[in-house]
Amino acid sequence: MSRKVVIIGGVAGGMSAATRLRRLDESLSITVLERSAHVSYANCGLPYFIGGVIDERQDLLLQTPESLHARFSLDVRVNHDVAYIDRENGRVIGTVRESGEAFELPYDYLILSPGAGPIIPPIPGVETAFTLRTVEDVDRLLAAVSAEPRHVTVIGGGFIGIETAENLRHRGIDVTLVEAAPQVLAPLDIEMALPVVAELQAHDVDVRLNSMMTEISSDCVRLASGECISTELVVLAIGVRPEVSLASTCGLEIGPRGGIKVNDFQQTSDPAIYAVGDAAEKIDALDGSSALIPLANLANRHGRIVADHIAGHPVRAVDAIGTAIVKVFDLTVAATGWNERRLKNAGREFLAIHTHPGSHAGYYPGAEQMRLKILIDPHTHRILGAQAVGKAGVDKRIDVIATAIRGEILAEELADLELCYAPPFGSAKDPVNMLGYVADNLLNGSSTSVQWHELSSLMAAGTPLIDVRTAREYEQGHIPGALNIPVDELRDRLNELPASSVVVTCQVGQRGHTAAMMLRELGIEASNLDGGYRTWSMSPAAG
Ligand SMILES: Cc1cc2nc3c(=O)[nH]c(=O)nc-3n(C[C@H](O)[C@H](O)[C@H](O)COP(=O)(O)OP(=O)(O)OC[C@H]3O[C@@H](n4cnc5c(N)ncnc54)[C@H](O)[C@@H]3O)c2cc1C
Asked: Which of 136, 149, 394, 409 qualifies as a FRET site for 220, CA 20 to 30 Å off?
């Protein structure tokens, strides 16, 4: 008798486990049960189908039950909704959608990959809102937007909300994006998120931050402020929650973050039942805590681990960092690891560095400036996280830093990475190398910096701010109260410095660093405003 493996959920995690398992073992009976009408669909591509960027629905459907049977001898059953796991007798019980016919299926191993469902707040009218998770969801939303509404409100400024807003704008629909938090894209810190809001606004998305939706009626979305946003259609994207109902009903242990608790092999509290993907908790690589990280890479990786474990192959469990990217009109936004907000909330010490490098050598046409931020443990010199907002080259830098975090490369060692360079592609000192140089200076004490949010209290306490850009740059915009002494004149104008301890600033922090080092050599205490005017002017400090 062949061993029976049953998999619940036939998309990222479930299908990775199924196909890997078949490659490793021809003798197994593998059945995949999927509630929706499709398996292996590209859920990450759904927003782009709304905007017509992906114009063939077929392109979203990567495999069919037939193709999976032909290549992998998998028994894939769509429209099969599992309602109960009978652990005592090793079987799953459910119904076939549409026909309502009951089914039950025995298992030796059960793999749960039911994903995460959209969070639906308990407010009046919420049942009329659209959500985006499955191909059926996108079909429904597309049918509604094909009726050419003039205005749609998207609730939630996370990845899915922003991708949906952008794609609705592609269709020429007016969009309001409502977000309860003071910023969009929670993985970013606020000074990195504000340029994203500016990009949304530049593409005529009406962004409402600090706005809590309280009610949806037939023609309006009401906010806690009492304001009514006149709208024809509402898309809800305020986050996802792991689907744990099957697991909890049959008594499997649920972890502290509300996901299914698993060990290094993805086994639940019942060793015959595995869980992967958005429904399962991960271990955070930074502090070993439980984490929910609903991203496709981890679902696929953990699906493979389960297959290896069932097939008796050695398993290498690796904790999760959380690396994500999103397109926001012409911007690329990417992040890895923890952000400053989270580090502060956890009471962890850190050092932040902001830079504004070009995507490639400035003298070669087409270079685009990006905002780059890295967070470092000042004691261990470990990289704790990074964020980037820009155009070309953002993905490359965050991927390199994510790799450095995984490889436990220290912050100053980023300077040692030999990254590919020719003028059309990068710089001899790549932006990642530069982060390493800055980190080295700060960590070995040869320079000190001041953050955008620390400046006003320092100035209020009497520390002067010296803007070392040219007079012309200064006139075009400067931090109130800054005294302008261009870096090239600084040696000759030392007598104009109002104090023996100053903060210096420039456009992005580079000339400020030169000025601060020069002043320190000349016996004046000088710190550099991290990221310069460019970081400060897009931060809440600028008002
Ligand atoms: C619109 C959208 C865009 C996204 N974009 C990105 C992106 O750009 N990058 C990224 O990394 N991640 C992205 N994600 C997240 C990514 O898709 C998920 O992390 C990944 O698919 C999780 O895999 P999973 O196997 O856990 O769950 P899923 O892929 O969601 O699959 C779970 C399946 O289980 C089925 N199921 C649930 N319960 C039952 C049941 N009781 N019986 C039978 N079947 C059941 C569901 O119908 C579903 O099809 C996006 C998600 C969405 C919705």
From this structure: 136
User: Do residues 388 and 356 lie in contact, with contact meaning Cβ atoms separated by under 8 Å?
Assistant: no
Q: Are 12 and 277 in contact (CB under 8 A)?
A: yes
Give residue-wise pLDDT tens across range 15-36.
Answer: 999 999 999 999 999 999 999 9
What is the overall mean pLDDT for the chain? 97
Residues framing ligand 1 (Cβ under 6 A): 8-9, 11-14, 33-36, 43-44, 46-47, 81-82, 113-115, 132-134, 160, 243, 246, 277-279, 294-297, 299
In angstroms, rounded to a whole number, what is the distance separating the alpha carbons of residues 289 and 275?
18
Q: Whose CA is nearest to atom 3 of ligand 1?
A: 44
User: Active-site positions?
Assistant: 44
How far apart are the C-alpha atoms of 118 and 237, rounded to whole Å?
7
Helices (H) and strands (E) in the chain, counts: 15, 29
Q: Measured in angstroms, how far is the CA atom of residue 14 from the centroid of ligand 1?
A: 10
CA–CA dist 507, 509 (Å, integer): 6
Burial class for 300, CB neighbours closer than 10 Å (0-12, 13-18, 19+):
middle
What pLDDT digit, counting tens, does each position of 41-83 carry? 999 999 999 999 999 999 999 899 999 999 999 999 999 999 9
Give 471-487 as a DSSP string.
HHHHHH---TT-EE--G
**pLDDT of 1 higher than 90:** no
Report CA Rg, the chain: 26
Do 362 and 337 contact (CB within 8 A), yes or no? no
């709208």: which residue's tokens? Answer: 231
Please give the Cα distance from 203 to 173 (Å, whole number): 11
How far, CA to CA in Å, does 452 sit from each of 225, 352, 437?
A: 30, 11, 20
Q: What is the DSSP string of 232-247?
A: SEEEE-S-EEE--HHH
* For ligand 1, atom 2: residue with the closest CA: 44
**Residues in Cβ contact with 466 at an 8 Å cutoff, skipping those fewer than 6 apart:** 482, 483, 484, 485, 490, 497, 502, 503, 504, 505, 515, 526
Tens digits of per-residue pLDDT, 92-147? 999 999 899 999 999 999 999 999 999 999 999 999 999 999 999 999 999 999 99
| Cα–Cα distance measured from residue 183 to residue 161, given in angstroms and rounded to the nearest whole number | 13
User: For residue 386, what is the enclosing H or E element?
Assistant: strand 383-390
Q: What is the mean pLDDT of residues 513-542?
A: 96
